[in-house]
Structure formats: structure tokens, C-alpha cells
């Protein structure tokens, strides 16, 4: 039935089936939308949604918008959803929609004012997608991606039509489903339209693993300020080329990390930018993975020693594991070892 024929209670029941939210660990807001309601529903229930859903998410440190099962929606709702993630003070032309039956073109702009508050532009937003993400949901994903407002994680979207209409063929029992509207741009389409091809995520991963991947990305991004602070202190305390430290500190303070979604991204960006400013290829940032080890092995590593077994056979086996000795063609000797042993160990061996 059309929304105009539904009571307030029936509309709320429909929304409960298509929308849910919760607060995840790390104060991450999670909003799942499986069907995007139209402008009429939002105007009738906007106050309820702001008070009972949106207001609970405003205090979170980051937001995950789950559109993995969102297979439909209304074009009229696009400006509403985008506006809550767009900074206030300016309006943005997000899309132009052409409708074939009416032969009309409609421009979509963000709203100058919204009911309630907008989500802070300083907070990260991650959108989850799958092959089931279709139509209006795809347009929203594409717009947020082009705005640079969201990190898209998951699978390529379905590449469905923006708006579909089912038509009966004559008086038969056959029907034809036709795309009747299309996105023209500027942000929603144009020559790079998503229709037919889908929207590619920033981080591709199976849909069922997208939430876990998104939370890992947000954990890394939440740790960025502390990582940069420790890096600045290390440069100030230890870097030999003291004259270049101020320029490096200025670089770190103004570096844009909006595209960083993994440890590898972070390391690549830091190394490229730090080496360019310092003109020093020896200045390197690396990822050190934590290894699980016993207290005994940890103690021996800290002391730079390893236990020496008793017995010649056991000691020979230890030497063979640490040193590689060969005589190469041409009577060339070859000796390889990958770390220096403590002198007390060498004396025993």
C-alpha cells in the first residue's frame, strides 16, 4: 500500500522491519537500512527517527552505515540522508535525475537545514556494500564516495536501475519491469555513472566480512593521533639530521590521512612523504608484528643470548641452524649467518 494509506503505527512497523541501530565496541555507531523510505514517510516520522534513532548515534566516535541488504528505496530520500552527513552552512548539488515517463529532469541538493543535528564532519563514516546493494542505495554510496565523506567497504554493488516500473503487457498475465529513471550527475552519475557497472568499494572484501573489516579500519584510524604523536617524539629525540626535524614535524601535523584504510597504506604514505621532505632514504617506518613467546625466550632475546645445549651433536645441530657454509664453484667459500650471537655463546661453540 501507498504510505498515504498507512496509519502512523503501520508506518513505524514498516520502519522497524527495514531499519535498526546499535552502539558497537569502541563507541562505533551502527545503522542498518534495508529499504530507504520516501520523502513522505520521512516528513511524517522524521521527529520520531531523530529522537529515537539518530540522536543515539550522534555521540558515537564513528559511524557504520550498512547497506548490504538495501535493495530499494525512493529517490526523494537521497537529499535527506546525504544532508545528515554533509557539513552545515553550504548546500551541495548531489545529483540530477531524469524521469522518462514524465520527461522531466530534477536536481537534488542537500538541505540547508535538517531536523536535529548533522553528524560531525570530523568523524569517520564507513558504508558497507554487497552485490545486493541496488538502486537508490547505490546512488547514495556513489555520492558519499565522490564527496570523500565515506570509506566504502565490501563488494561491488549490483549496478541496478535507479527507479523501476512494472508494466502489464496488454491484457495478459505477463509483466515487463523497466528502468524509468536514471542518474545524470554531477556527483551521482554523468559519464562515470554506476548504473550497469555498480559502485566499486575502496576496500574489497566478502560481504559477510565487511563489518569486521570496517571495525579494523576504524580501530587503526582511531589510533592515528597517538601513532603520529609517538613518531613526532621519536624524530625530536633521536633523528640525527636535527635541522630537518622542524620541517618533518610540520609535515606530520598537516598530513591528510583520509585515504588511509590499512597499516600498509599508512606505512607507504609516511615513508613517501617523510623521505621526500627529509631527502633521506634511510628514514623508514615499518610494521612490527607482535609475536607470542614464552618468558624464557623473551628473557634470552633481551639479553642477546640463547641457551647452548650440552653435547657435541646438539651443539653441531645448533651451529648448522645458525650458519650456512658451502664451497661454491671456483673454490669460493660461502658463509652466511642472519644474526650476531652473544660472545659467551661463541666461546662455547
TrEMBL record:
Q: What ranges does the record list as Polar residues composition bias? A: 295-306
Q: Does the keyword Ubl conjugation apply?
A: no
- Identify the Pfam families for this entry: Peptidase_S41 (PF03572), Peptidase_S41_N (PF11918)
Quote the Gene3D superfamilies the UniProt record gives. Answer: 2-enoyl-CoA Hydratase, Chain A, domain 1, 3.30.750.44
Q: What biological process terms from GO does the record include?
A: proteolysis
GO MF terms, alphabetically ordered: serine-type peptidase activity
* Keywords assigned: Receptor
Where is region (Disordered) located?
292-313
What is the protein name for this chain?
A: Interphotoreceptor retinoid binding protein
Q: Which organism is it from?
A: Petrodromus tetradactylus (Four-toed elephant shrew)
